[in-house]
Protein: Homoserine O-succinyltransferase
Amino acid sequence: MEECMSALPGSVGAVTPQAFHFEAPLPLQSGASIAGYTLMVETYGSLNADKSNAVLICHALNASHHVAGYYADQPKNIGWWDNMVGPGKPVDTNRFFVIGVNNLGSCFGSTGPMHTNPATGKPYGADFPVVTVEDWVNAQARLADVMGIKQFAAVMGGSLGGMQALAWSILYPDRLQNCVVIASTPKLSAQNIAFNDVARQAILTDPDFHGGDFYAHGVVPRRGLRVARMIGHITYLSDDDMAEKFGRDLKSDDYQFGYGVDFEIESYLRYQGDKFSDYFDANTYLLITKALDYFDPARHTDGDLTKALATTKAQFLLASFTTDWRFSPERSREIVKALISNKRTVSYAEIDAPHGHDAFLLDDSRYLNLVAAYFDRIATELKGVSA
Amino acid sequence: MEECMSALPGSVGAVTPQAFHFEAPLPLQSGASIAGYTLMVETYGSLNADKSNAVLICHALNASHHVAGYYADQPKNIGWWDNMVGPGKPVDTNRFFVIGVNNLGSCFGSTGPMHTNPATGKPYGADFPVVTVEDWVNAQARLADVMGIKQFAAVMGGSLGGMQALAWSILYPDRLQNCVVIASTPKLSAQNIAFNDVARQAILTDPDFHGGDFYAHGVVPRRGLRVARMIGHITYLSDDDMAEKFGRDLKSDDYQFGYGVDFEIESYLRYQGDKFSDYFDANTYLLITKALDYFDPARHTDGDLTKALATTKAQFLLASFTTDWRFSPERSREIVKALISNKRTVSYAEIDAPHGHDAFLLDDSRYLNLVAAYFDRIATELKGVSA
Structure:
C-alpha cells in the first residue's frame, strides 16, 4: 500500500474493507433490536500508540465506508470523500487514523434489508427494523470499543453524516474531542420531510416493490428508485447552479413536441436516476430517509436545542454553504447558537459556494482549507502524534 | 341567476358552461394541427354595447373555465378564482364581461387526450398533439372572434395563466388594452423544468399508463399522478408556510417506526395526491407541463426579452409574492424591466405574503385591493360602461 501511496500522491491508495461482526443484540430506538450483524469498515493511516488520533467519518444517504482511496480491482471506484481524506489532505492520514463505517441498514456490505432475517430465513425486506441516527451512533460506539478507541480525536460528517457527529457529541460526550458538522441541520423541516415522503411513496407504490419483498420476485422497484433519486438530486443542487450548468439548453436543435428528452437537465436527471436504480437498495432508501426525518435531538427537551446540547463536551467545527437550500446556513446557525449558549468552543464558517447541498462533497479551496486548518490544530494538540 | 346573485352577495351565483365548437383546423406550433375541437367556456356579467368590457381569464395547470360561481347541481363546486371575479369583487362583473375558457388538451370538457381522435376512432391518449401557450392563445383568439370581441379590456392570468396573458400581448398587441400577469415568469428555469420532468417520469413509467392508452385498459395511472401532484404541491407552498402549518407535527403521539404516516405534512400531501389522481387526466398533466417548459417568448430574439416584448401595446399590471420560490419575484421583475425598456406603462407590486406560489389564488387584501384598483382604472377609461 505504501507503494501505491507514493505512486498516487495525496491518495491513500488501494484499500481493503474489513467486516466486523457483532453477536450481541443492539437495542434500537424503536424498541426492536438487531443481533448478529456485520459492519463494513475501512481505515486509513495508522492508529498511534495511545489511540488518540482516530477520526470517525460518518456517511450520508447514499455513501458508505469507502471514504477514500480505491479498490485494487476497481481503480475507478474512488472513495466519496477522497478530496478530504488522505496523506496531506485536510484530514491528513499521515497524522490521523481515519475510519469509515457503513451504517446498519445500508446496502454496501453492512447488515441491511437484503440480508437474511435469522427469524424467518428470508431477506428482511421492509421488515428490517427502522433505525435512527442514534442507533447508528450506538453501533459505531461498539465498533470503537472493539477497536480499542476510547475517545476519537474527531467525529465528522456532512448532511446526514453531520447529524451522526452531532448525536455523538450528545450521546457520548466523553468519547470525542472534536465534532465536525458540515451542511447539516438540527432537524428536518416540513419541506424536507415532504420531499422524502414523495420519494418514499414513489418506491412504496412501485408494483415491483412487492411490499419490500422484491428480492424473492427477482425484480427491483427501479421506477420508484429512479423517481426518488431524481427528486433528491434536485434538492442537492442549487437553482443557480442548475441554471449555470444546464439552463434551458436543448439536447437537439429544437423542441421535440413529445415526451422524450427536450432539455439537457432532463437528460442529466434521468441518467442520475437510472444509475442510482442500478445499485441502490429500495428498502435502504426508505429506512435512511426515515432516519433523516426522525432526527431531532431537541424532541425530548421541548424543542429547546440549547438544552439538548447541554451535555456536550466536544469542541465544534460547523460549516454551511450559502446556496444550500436543503439544509440552509440558517439551520447550521441554530446549532451554533445553541452551542454558544452552552459556552462550547465553536468555529463556524458560512461558505459562499454555488453548488447547493452537494458543495460539502466538492472541491472548494476555502472549504478544504478551513477543515485543514481545524485538523492542523487538532493534530498539534494530540499527544504522541509524530507530526 | 339574478336571484342567486342577490341571495349570495359578491358571487356570480349559479353558472352554466357553454361549449363552443370549431371546425376549421387550428395550426399548432409543433407543425401539427387539430380540427373539429370544442372549447368549454363560462361567462359572467354582460357584454356592453360596443363590446369593450370583456376580460379574458386564462387558467393554470389544474384549473378550468369554471372561474367563478357554482353549479346549480353542485353548490360546493366554486370557481377557482371566485374571490377575484364577481359583483363588487376586484374583477367586478357588474362592470366587466368576464370569460373563462378551458384550454385545448385540458380535461374539463374542452377537447383533450381522452376524446376521440377522428383519425383513429380511438381516444387520442399520448398522441394528442403537444400544445403550447401560443397555441392556446390562438384558440382563445378564435373564441373571441366568434364572440365578436375585437379587443379585450384585459387579458389576465396567474402562473401559467400569466404566460398566456403575456403571449396575448405579443401575438395580438391590438386585441387587449391591459395585460395582467400574476405570479408568473418569462420562462421556466432548469429547476422548474426538472420538477416537471420528474413528475412526468412518474406518470410515464407507471405501468397503468400504457403509453397513454390507459382509457382502453380501464385503468388510470394513479400512482404516477399522485406522485406528480405531491411534487407539484411542494413547489406551490413556501418552506415557511409549510413550517407554520405543519412543522414537524405528528399524526400520533410518537414515531411509528414504519412506512405509514408519521408527520402531518405526509398525511396532507398524500391526501392532495390521492384527490388529484381521482379527477385529473394523466395525458393532460404531461402536455400542460410541456406547455410550461416550452414557454419562452425570448427564444426567437436570442434570449432578449426586451426585443421579444417590443411589439406589445397593452398597459401592464404585474404582481409577485415574496415567498413564491416556484416563480420568484425576480422572474416578474425581468418582465417589468423588459417592458420598461420598451417604454410600456407598467404597474408592478411585490406582495409580502407567506403562502408561496399559491398566494395568487388566496385572499390577501393588499393583493385583491391592488387588482381592484387597477380594474377600477380600466372601468373608468371604458366607453359605454354603466359605472
Summary: Confidence is low (pLDDT under 50) at residues 1-9 of chain A. Chain A touches chain B through 54 residues (CB under 8 Å). The CA atoms of residues 270 and 361 of chain A lie 21 Å apart. The radius of gyration of chain A is 21 Å.
